[in-house]
Every structure is written in C-alpha cells, then in structure tokens.
Design brief:
- By secondary structure, the chain is of the alpha+beta class.
- It has one domain: Nucleoside Triphosphate Pyrophosphohydrolase (Alpha-Beta Complex).
- It is built from two helices and eight strands, in the order E-E-E-E-E-H-E-E-E-H.
- The strands form two sheets. A four-stranded mixed sheet has the order 5-1-7-6. Strands 2, 3, 4 and 8 form a four-stranded antiparallel sheet that branches.
- Strand 3 and strand 4 form a beta hairpin.
- The radius of gyration is 16 Å and the shape is globular.
Length: 160
C-alpha cells in the first residue's frame, strides 16, 4: 500500500472578535469532482518552507490579504484510504497546522487558477449553515477553546 503525507498550514482570521458581529474569512475550495465547499484559507507547504511562511503565502494567494500569524492554535491530523488510479490502495494522511492570524493589508480578491474560486467574510453565527469542510469547525473550536494540547475534540480519534 502506498502512503502519502501532506503537511499544510491554515489561518483562522476573525474580525470583530466573539461579538455578535464577528466574521470569519473563508475561501471556497473546489474539489476535483467540482463540488464547492468553504474552508479556511491555507494549503500545502512547499519543501523547505516554514509553516508560518506557508500560511502567509496561502492567505495572500487565496484572498488577496496580507496576514500576520499571531498564535498557533493547534495541529489536526486526518487519514483517508483511497484506490490509486494506476493500482492498489493508498493511505493518505494530512497534517494541518492551524494558526490564528490577523489581516494587516491587501484587498479581498479571488484566486485564479488555484484550488479556490471565491473568498469572503462570513458572520460567525452563519457558519453552521454553510456548505463547508470539517476544518472550518475544527479551526473555530481551536480558536474559541484554545486547548492546551492544540487538539480539537472534533478531530477523528482514530487518527491518533
């Protein structure tokens, strides 16, 4: 069985704090099958790249904003099994480093020729109604609860 590890860094960018008017910045991810769901801005690390540099680069690419990471919120690990195109099964693991970040400049714009097609601010209380990936909920829980080990209770316990 072929194994693959992907390390990525993501940002939880909230403006207005925990107040009723608080908003979170999300990017709309487009899956290979065309399904579109909201996610945290972020993505895969390049070889030799520092995770902080990754999250800054990815926020800029996906939203147009300059971001400054201000806190490490946690690390989430997921695993998926799949059938490879040219052969047997595969075992994929994603290690997702989640930072709190603040926007320091730039202007909202959409990514072109990337894995996302939109970026937008969403009211925090509207997030449960969005078609989203589980990482949005994990990131928000890490941001709200600040668990000492940086692990969300929403993470799959089977991932260790």
């Amino acid at each position: 069985m072929r194994t693959e590890l992907r390390v990525a860094a993501y940002a939880v960018c909230v403006r207005g704090g925990r107040t009723p008017g608080g908003e979170i910045l999300l990017a709309r991810w487009v899956a290979r099958d065309g399904v579109k769901r909201w996610t945290l801005p972020g993505g895969g690390m390049d070889h030799g790249e520092d995770p902080v540099d990754t999250v800054v680069r990815e926020v800029a690419e996906e939203t147009g904003y300059a971001a400054e990471p201000v806190a490490l919120l946690g690390i989430d690990s997921i695993r998926r099994n799949w059938l490879r195109r040219l052969g047997g099964p595969g075992d994929w693991q994603g290690l997702r480093i989640v930072y709190e970040a603040r926007i320091t400049g730039g202007e909202l714009r959409y990514e072109t020729d990337g894995s996302t097609d939109l970026a937008a601010w969403h009211p925090l209380d509207a997030v449960p109604g969005l078609d989203r990936v589980e990482l949005v909920d994990i990131g928000l829980q890490l941001w709200r609860d600040r668990p000492p080990l940086g692990r969300s209770s929403l993470s799959d316990p089977a991932n260790g």
